[in-house]
Every structure is written in C-alpha cells, then in structure tokens.
Amino acid sequence: MVTLTVDGEPCTLPRDASVAxxxxxxGSIARTSARFxxxxxxxxxxxxxxxxxxxxxxxxxxxxxxVLAEDxxxxxxxxxIQPSSGAG
Amino acid sequence: xxxSARSDAHAAPLDFExxxxxxxxxxxxxxxxxxxxxxxxxxxxxLDAQPAPGGSAWRNVEAVTTQRPQDxxxxxPDYADGFPIAQRFRRCGADYRAGASVGAIELAVSxxxxxxxxxxxxxxxxxxxTGPDIDPATHIERRRTGADRRVHYTDSxxxxxxxxxxxxxxxxxxERAMPLxxxxxxxxxxxxxxxxxxxxxxxxxxxxxxIVGSGPLALQVAAQLLRAGxxxxxxxxxxxxxxxxxxxxxxxxxxxxPGYLAKGLSLSGALRRAGVPRFAGATEVRIEGAARAEVVxxxxxxxxxxxPVATVLLHQGQVPDAQLWQSLKVDRYWDARQWCFxxxxxxxxxxxxxxxxxxxxxxxxxxxxxxxxxxxxxxLSIAWQQRRIDTRERDRRARRAQRALRAHSSMRPxxxxxxxxxxxxxxxxxxxxxxxxxxxxxxGELRALVAQGxxxxxxxxxxxxxxxxxxxxxxxxxxxxxxxxxxxxxx
Lengths: 88, 491
Prior knowledge:
The structure holds 2 protein chains of 2 kinds.
Chain A: E1 2-6, E2 9-13, H1 19-25, E3 31-32, E4 39-40, E5 53-56, E6 59-63, E7 74-76
Parallel strand pairs in A: 1-7
Antiparallel strand pairs in A: 1-2, 3-4, 5-6, 5-7
Chain B: H1 3-7, E1 17-24, H2 28-39, E2 44-48, H3 61-67, H4 72-75, H5 77-80, H6 82-91, E3 95-98, E4 101-107, H7 109-113, E5 149-155, E6 158-169, E7 173-175, E8 188-190, H8 191-201, E9 209-214, H9 216-227, E10 234-237, H10 241-248, H11 251-254, H12 260-274, E11 278-280, E12 283-288, E13 295-300, E14 303-308, E15 311-316, E16 318-320, H13 323-327, E17 332-335, E18 340-343, E19 356-358, H14 368-385, H15 391-409, H16 412-418, E20 434-436, E21 441-442, H17 443-451, H18 457-464, H19 477-488
Parallel strand pairs in B: 1-2, 1-6, 2-3, 6-19, 8-15, 9-10, 9-15, 10-11
Antiparallel strand pairs in B: 4-5, 5-6, 7-16, 12-13, 13-14, 17-18, 20-21
C-alpha cells in the first residue's frame, strides 16, 4: 500500500493504483474547468480525456491517471482559471 | 559551431537510437506484433503510456494474476488469457519502455519524398539507406538513413526521440464520448474507467451506481461489478429497438464467430439472475446534480424515471484513437457502420504513408482477438518489407492469423448495427450540454455558429475553441463534426 495526500487529506491505496484513483477514492475533484469554473473529476482513466489534470509535488497539469501513486506524494487539485495554452 | 549553437546542443541529440520497428502501444495488437517481429529478429522497441503491458483489455493483468489471484474471477476468463501473453511479451527481446507517451511521429524528409502513391507499397529498406551520416561539426554519426521515421515521446526522464524504419501504431481505442446533459459532473465516468479502477486499485464505484448507454463493454462492466459485490441499480440502455431489428440480418454471420453470442447471452443471464433492472430503449437521459451526479433521469415506455445515484458509468461503444495516424495525414475514410473515421489500410495494416502501419482497434473496432491477429499480420508484413522473410514464408506464417481474423470479423456487422449509438446521444439537443469538455463549449454555441455560417470543424475550432483543448479533440471532434454536418445537410 502507498499513502499520499490529496488536497492535504491522506489517502491510502494499493501499489498499482494511479493518482487519479486516489482523487476518486477521496471523493475529491481534479480541477475546475477553465471557462465556467465547473468541478471535474477523472473520467476515462486511460489518458484520453485530460480531465484528471492535477498538481503533483508542485508540477501542474500532470495526467493523474497515468501516474502511479507513490508514498508521500502531494497531490493538489487545480483551481485557478488559467489562460488557455493555445496548444492542440 | 557558434557558442549559441553549442549551448543548445542538449536540446537535440544528433545520435538517435535506431530500430527496425517502433511499436506504439502494448495492448493486444502491439504485443502480438512484438512477438512476431522478434521471431523474425527485427530490432524492436515498444513504447506504451501505461505502467504495465496489456492495454485496456488486460489492464494490470500481471499484478492481478500474481498478487491477488482471488480477484481474477471478477474480470472474466478473457481477462485471464492476457497473463501468459504478457509474460511471453516480457521475454521476447523487444525493448519495452513503459510509461512512454508518444507525442508525435515525424517522417524524415527523404522518406516523405519517397512516399509511394496512396495504396501502393514497396520495401522501405535497402534502396533508401544512405549509410552513416557523420555530422561535420561533432563527428557523431547521426545514423540517419533515408528511411527513418522519428518518434518523439515523453517518459519520466523527459522528452526523447528515437528513429525506426517502420512505425506500427497500435494505440487502440477509447470510449466514444456520450455528451448527455450532466456528463461532465464528478461521479460520472466511463465503463472502461470502472474496469481500470477495479483492476489497478481494487476500487468499486460508490453505491448507488447506474450504467447508461449500450454495448458489450457496458454489460461486461455490469457483470464485473456484480462479481465484485456491487449491484448496479439500473442498466439504462439507449439503443433503440430498431437497432435490434437492423442487426437481425447480420445474425447469420454472427453465429459463425467463435463464442461472442454465447458470451453476450451469459452476461444478460447474469444480470437477470441478479435482478438488475434493464431499461431498454430509454430516451431523454440526463444526469442531474449540483456539484456531483445525484440523479439519472430518463423516459422509458412513456414514463419518466428518476433514480438517485452516486456514480454513473457511461458507454456507447468505442472509436479508434486516431490522434497519431491522423497527425500524419494518412488516407482515411468514414465508416458509417462503426460511425467513425478509419485509416485506409491494406490487409497488413499498411497506410498510405510509407513505413507507417496501423493495427488493432486503432484502425477500426474489432476487439481483442482481432487485434492479436492484426498485430501479427502487421509484423509479418514489416519483416517482409525489410527482407527478413520472403513472400512465401510471409504468406505461410500469415495463414492462421488471416483465418482467425476473418472468423472474428464476421461478428462485427451484427455488433456494430446492434449497438450503433442513436443520434440523440451522439449530438445533444439540449443547448446547455457541454460538447467540448476541455474548453467548456456547449452545443447551443456550436449551433449558433453554424447558423452564422461556420461550415467546417477547422473553422469551428478557430472561432469557438471547440476541439482546441488538451485532449486534442478526442472527446468532441466527432460530436462537433456531426453537429455541423446535420445543420448544413439536414437530409
């Protein structure tokens, strides 16, 4: 098992779980949408939808469903409305 | 070399690793291709975004089999099949790189110039090789041959690039977007996501859980949840009755395909025995809630139902992950049966772009068994193009996979027709429903722009930002394109 924090709350889950699983297990959200500020949580779990973008140990926009949960990780949901990157 | 160029040197290493074959994706198609490519001694690298091999079908199968075998029954017999295949893959001698997300494939300039006419293929090695390419400034051999393709990818160490004579795109499929009112609420996930959470984290969705949509995976996940001790409060099936009637004429071919109908009936039986209510032909489905999903509302046989829920699992079939092959502008076509774009490939997966091959669900939905066959055939063709085997040997080795592929494909017309998502759940009629999740663009806004004269997805992207977000349009491009097509061609 590994233990990490999601928005400061501890969360323990199996070793093969992703950070997105931790977000869901906490009942937390990943981010608020850029334009309307609506809550969004992990949706596809396979790296397609990009809804699970979170901050992991200070790095923004990590795809939580593709990152394995590790002991001591600090995961934070992303709330600031960011200017669109223009990429894509 | 100037000082500024020297300080830039770390940005672009000149000495790329060179492989005979780069496979993108370690699901059934990628694994089967790697096994056959190694049998033909191709120097093979496999890049996969996930931490372990198996793709979506066999997600985390190695760990589940070895560390919690008591849970295997939850996922069904097809899942357990993945373990020995993943083990063979680990030992096959391919350079397997987990956690590697491919961002782009680049054709070397000379390869682009040498690209044959669409639909015509030729051996890509030999004639195009130009021998060692020594950089005059650094004296490093760049190992570029005229036939290389570059693959740019990101892993935990940062951005990296490798070169390969052939690139096999085996990136599989993802679940078609189901843009219902409320589908962006937390608590709403795909059925595939539920499978991933169960396989990787041992998590089940919060009760009460409703499954909304249609398709084999929706029934499979419902059965999985039952075996994991969670009884769905409802399976709200959106496929209309006309689908079943339309599918009937494909039933004759479907009974020839091994096992599929029996599997479907056994899943239905499991749900019936468990007493899971099924609402076939439900319409006007919407998910309501303030900060998360609280209610699923729908019409069924003239009545309105409102079910309290904590979790909603959506599914209406799968579509190829077109991102990489579409970025290379390979020839593609619209498949009205599968309701998606597919790359125009020959029987071996070769695209119109020399050296670029697509196999598995990424080329059109065929399922796990078909993907295994397609991967094997693609590798045989690549080995033949690189002159590792002659034509006779290729055809001899291909026979088994070709026969199996035909058998498994005979099921598709039936499944595709039965589970074709209805128009109402492909394009939302409700103006406030989000179409583009990344950029928060709603259906009403898109329709207003069409009324103002927007006539293509490219125009729509520019004026609305729909399909311009982080996911690259994978969840909204089909919806937006159909919305434009319907508004401009009502027939």
